[in-house]
Specification:
It is built from five helices and ten strands. The chain is α+β, with helices and mostly antiparallel strands. The two termini are 29 Å apart. The relative contact order is 0.15.
Length: 270
């Protein structure tokens, strides 16, 4: 599944082709995404796209009439193409722009989304309950400390909760906890404030590094230029079960938490 860095990488890649351009036509070839593509999405036709931002894993493209919300789902991607490019089987939606280019949403598993929001997008049901952005000013040690107070759930599960902080997916949670030296199984309420301060810094560092490197290579995800990301080459613990820790040499272990694989070093993390 494309995680926050992959979504941010995609947004940065397509935005220069969209911002300031008008949408000549919206083509919906298959409405059957995670939520049906609404007929109101055609209100985008004739609108100029004024802005493009990311909220969690959602991309929001603003116009004077409303906001286009896009989500890549499990395996979706966006491409900027000439309009006469042959359609692929799972190209479900396209925006033809006045620049002569076309944005296409490709989503083989159809877990993505394309919605039209009128009014304040922050009040939309998909967005209004989300926690702070991990790279924003609202994600602080104090905020995370408050969220962890009294919780018996494992710290990894807490930082992956989008109500606490958005966008810390499975890979990045494992990596950040390793960088902070925290056992992923430790009850969140027992992690001290100084250690949470290290964790906040580690989450910021690992996500920023992944964005800089173009996103982690995950299954079918490709960045906007069609090339895979390269952050996977620098992973310290994720998907390295049985391999030596890059710091102490101990064997990396794998456990399952919340039906997701967790990787950690038994010596470096406590």
């Amino acid at each position: 599944m494309p995680e926050l860095p992959e979504v941010e990488t995609t947004l940065r890649g397509v935005s220069p082709h969209l911002i300031g351009k008008r949408v000549r036509e919206v083509i919906v070839r298959d409405k059957r995404l995670r939520w049906p593509v609404p007929d109101t999405i055609h209100e985008l036709e004739g609108c100029r796209i004024d802005s493009g931002v990311r909220r969690a894993k959602y991309m929001l493209f603003g116009t004077a009439k409303g906001t286009l919300l896009l989500h890549l789902g499990m395996s979706g991607n966006l491409r900027i193409l000439p309009p006469d490019t042959p359609w692929r089987k799972h190209d479900h939606l396209a925006l033809t722009l006045d620049s002569g280019k076309q944005l296409r949403l490709h989503d083989p598993r159809r877990f993505g989304a394309a919605l039209w929001i009128q009014g304040n997008p922050a009040e939309h049901a998909l967005l209004r309950e989300l926690g702070p952005e991990p790279l924003g000013d609202d994600f602080t040690t104090a905020q995370l400390h408050t969220a962890c107070q009294g919780k018996t759930a494992a710290i990894k599960q807490v930082i992956m909760d989008a109500h606490v902080v958005v966008g810390v997916g499975n890979i990045y949670a494992s990596e950040a906890l390793f960088m902070a030296g925290i056992d992923p199984r430790k009850p969140a309420g027992k992690v001290t404030r100084p250690r949470l301060e290290k964790l906040v810094a580690a989450i910021r560092e690992v996500l920023a590094a992944s964005i800089e490197m173009g996103g982690t290579t995950l299954r079918d995800f490709l960045n906007e230029s069609g090339e895979p990301g390269y952050f996977a080459q620098t992973l310290r613990v994720y998907d390295r079960e049985g391999e030596p820790c890059r710091v102490c040499g101990a064997r990396i272990r794998r456990i399952v938490q919340g039906q997701r694989s967790t990787f950690y070093c038994p010596k470096c993390q406590r």
